[in-house]
């Protein structure tokens, strides 16, 4: 471990820009939370989808929290039209491409984790990088998540920009102390003397018969940590754009990747682009209901949307992408248009992203709702190994269709 530390510290000498202003910008997530109203509890018990009384549409602007909706950020420099004439790429290759571009651009960027070096990572997201950049910038570590995550935090404090790969996101529970007490809080507890520009990424979610311990969805665990930003990629295009944005951010960012999406193929632009870490994606415009989702459930929702369209419904589908903070600008505008909301997530029902999103919408856009918010989540049970039982624990397209029909009655 001492040799590893010496290697990482030696890498800091690669750039004279390792020093930084002690008056670092405050975390946007902290600012966002300070603008919110006091704490709240969420009751996630099942309830009938009874339609609100007709007078619920009486909107009272004075009752809305005006500062709950952030100013809209500019669109990515790479528009959807620029995808024409790009190159086809798999999602894991898009992650590697974004990582490689940033390592070329900034010599302070380094990678560490189990088998990230000459093996190329458990899902090949770092394949070939050790040969190109050497063993100091692509550092193979022992099986000790708490140790190398803590080492990455120290490297970030000295001016490097480390990317930590968890071989499986469930293993990062071993580094929960380093992620929560160090990554999220050091900028604040040091009085702004330190920035922690670190990216923590890796595969997670329910795969195919990976068992309970390898099917974790840690977004529910990490969402309550002050100072942490969280994003979830779902396509090769946004995987690369979010990876580059996370590396350039001065804040600690957790990038969630789904184990079943690595082999998705999509055409992405040849030119460089960087996405916003705090902006949702409008996947399908619609008029009847807003469906909010992210990661793998995006595809279950779009499968259900085909059935819904054939039945005469016009759902609006939004990939929220930013799990913390939420893009309440995009979400709020959609709620004001459709007046109905369905949240679809793979996260656990109790204390999941859906619970926080439900609370945020009720707090800020309650007067625009014509029906209670519905949330479809995974069952609160360990994920079974048996394939048929595994499917029962995760939201399926037929359940989404049924929920939309009930909400739109």
UniProtKB/TrEMBL annotation:
It comes from the Eukaryota. It catalyses: N(6)-[(R)-lipoyl]-L-lysyl-[protein] + pyruvate + H(+) = N(6)-[(R)-S(8)-acetyldihydrolipoyl]-L-lysyl-[protein] + CO2. GO terms for biological process: pyruvate decarboxylation to acetyl-CoA. Keywords: Chloroplast, Metal-binding, Oxidoreductase, Plastid, Potassium, Pyruvate, Thiamine pyrophosphate, Transit peptide. It is an enzyme of class 1 (oxidoreductase). Pfam families: Transket_pyr, Transketolase_C. It is found in: Plastid, Chloroplast. InterPro entries: THDP-binding (IPR029061), Transketo_C/PFOR_II (IPR009014), Transketolase-like_Pyr-bd (IPR005475), Transketolase_C (IPR033248). The keyword Transit peptide applies. One of its GO terms (molecular function) is pyruvate dehydrogenase (acetyl-transferring) activity. SUPFAM superfamilies: Thiamin diphosphate-binding fold (THDP-binding) (SSF52518), TK C-terminal domain-like (SSF52922). Its EC number is 1.2.4.1. SMART domains: Transket_pyr (SM00861). Its cofactor is thiamine diphosphate. One of its GO terms (cellular component) is chloroplast. Tetramer of 2 alpha and 2 beta subunits. The pyruvate dehydrogenase complex catalyzes the overall conversion of pyruvate to acetyl-CoA and CO(2). It contains multiple copies of three enzymatic components: pyruvate dehydrogenase (E1), dihydrolipoamide acetyltransferase (E2) and lipoamide dehydrogenase (E3). This is pyruvate dehydrogenase (acetyl-transferring). It comes from Nelumbo nucifera (Sacred lotus). The lineage of its organism: Eukaryota, Viridiplantae, Streptophyta, Embryophyta, Tracheophyta.
């Amino acid at each position: 471990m001492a040799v590893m530390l010496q290697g990482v510290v030696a890498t800091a000498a690669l750039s004279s820009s390792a020093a930084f202003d002690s008056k670092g910008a405050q975390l946007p997530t902290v600012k966002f939370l300070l603008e919110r109203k006091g704490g709240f509890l969420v009751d996630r018990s099942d309830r009938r989808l009874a339609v609100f009384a007709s007078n619920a549409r009486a909107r009272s602007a004075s009752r809305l929290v005006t500062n709950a909706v952030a100013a809209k950020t500019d669109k990515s420099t790479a528009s959807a039209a620029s995808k024409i004439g790009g190159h086809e790429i798999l999602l894991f290759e898009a992650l590697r491409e974004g990582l490689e571009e940033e390592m070329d651009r900034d010599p302070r960027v380094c990678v560490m984790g189990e088998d990230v070096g000459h093996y190329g990572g458990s899902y090949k997201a770092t394949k070939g990088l050790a040969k190109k950049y050497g063993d100091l910038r692509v550092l193979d570590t022992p099986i000790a998540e708490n140790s190398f995550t803590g080492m990455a935090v120290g490297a970030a404090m000295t001016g490097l920009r480390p990317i930590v790969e968890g071989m499986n996101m469930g293993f990062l529970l071993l580094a929960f102390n380093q992620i929560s007490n160090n990554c999220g809080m050091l900028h604040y507890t040091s009085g702004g003397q330190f920035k922690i520009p670190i990216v923590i990424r890796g595969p997670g979610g329910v795969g195919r018969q990976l068992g309970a311990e390898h099917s974790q969805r840690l977004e529910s665990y990490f969402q309550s940590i002050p100072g942490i930003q969280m994003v979830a990629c779902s396509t090769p295009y946004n995987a690369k754009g979010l990876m580059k944005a996370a590396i350039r951010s001065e804040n600690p960012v957790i990038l969630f990747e789904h184990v079943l999406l690595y082999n998705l193929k999509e055409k992405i632009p040849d030119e460089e682009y960087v996405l916003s870490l705090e902006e949702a994606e409008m996947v399908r415009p619609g008029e009847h209901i807003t469906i909010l989702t992210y990661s793998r459930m995006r595809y279950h929702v779009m499968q259900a949307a085909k059935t819904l369209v054939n039945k005469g419904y016009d759902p609006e589908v939004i990939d929220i992408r930013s799990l913390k903070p939420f893009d309440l600008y995009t979400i709020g505008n959609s709620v004001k248009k459709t007046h109905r909301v369905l949240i679809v997530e793979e996260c656990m029902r109790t204390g999941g992203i859906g619970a926080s999103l439900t609370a945020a919408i009720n707090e800020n856009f309650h007067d625009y709702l014509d029906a209670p918010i519905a949330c479809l989540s995974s069952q609160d049970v360990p994920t079974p190994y048996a394939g048929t039982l595994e499917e029962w624990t995760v939201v399926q397209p037929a359940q989404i269709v049924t929920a939309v029909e009930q909400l739109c009655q």
